[in-house]
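User: Show me a protein chain along with its predicted structure.
Assistant: Here is one chain, sequence first, then structure tokens.
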Amino acid sequence: MGSDSDRPISAGAPEPESTPREHLASWLSANQRRLASQIMSDHFDRAPEFVARYGERGRAKCTEDVGYHLEYLRAAVATSSPTLFLNYVAWIKVLLAGFGIPESHLAQSLDLTRAALEAELDPSWRDLAIPLLDEAALALPSFPCEPSSPLCDANPHAELASRYLEALLAGDRNTAGQMILDAAERGLPVADIYLYVVNPTQREIGRLWQTNRISVAKEHYCTAATQQIIARLHPWISASERVGLRVIASSVGSELHELGARMVADFFEMAGWDVYYLGASTPLPGLISAMIERRADLVALSATMTRNVPIVADFVREIRACPETAAILILVGGYPFNVAPDLWRYVGADGTTSSPDAAVHLARLLVEERKAAGSAPTRRA
């Protein structure tokens, strides 16, 4: 007999404390590898030409891709956010196109994923997952094969952003850094450097990697170089008058993408907040200890990978459960929260924004609202 995780979800009732969505999400997580392997075997059995085209190494990569299908499907189910899965399918279409893999292969993969789940799930559970796959299959042809570049003429500093990107892609970190420092010396506000140079450049680097125009190594180099460069901007950041408010900023769980959280922290510092920036992969006990020790008014949590959204929810729940941190305001942000703007409600935060300047503005409103009401603020995006 197989293990419990190998059985259909209809075998056994969900635990009392779990919602149907949570139970299904847990099952998808437990069975992800098995289902991905099964789906890919079916795919190759139905299309023997795939073996000749991709080989065993390609088969392993395709199986990994199906695992991602299931991972993002699980996230969408758990959070009641179909947009998370639709956005992922649109993203993976572009990624696969960059490797010359036609849309039809992705369509077949989604269809086989649907068939595998339909065969295993009880009808009462299918309604939570199958419609997401149907919606994605219907929308797939309309998704673009290549996203537009974020470097556009509407950017008031597009010329500097383009030259900065060119230097990074050439592996010339020193020239790229000098461009930024020279701009700051000439009086360009750090806020503008972040919003109109660093942010669109990083998005363009991500687009170039997604479309297979640069390697993952070059993407890592560019990001690491930018992290080092913005660290040199601190003399232009810390000169603001203090406002007597304290914020802690951090990425959660295994999250290694910390550039967004760093920029948010710097915007708070430029607005006069006292900032305690913890960086990437901060463990929950350390975060709570820092919140208590620093007497934080607000904590800003960042997650770039959708798989880390449940970890954000765990962090928020534990912060609320601790008497010493329960009243501290919580803002969340990062890619999945931009894709699904209501996702902050799922994790239990006080709000979210899509840009660091907006985060500071929302934080100020929440603090003022709390002072005026003498109670917990209304949560908002």
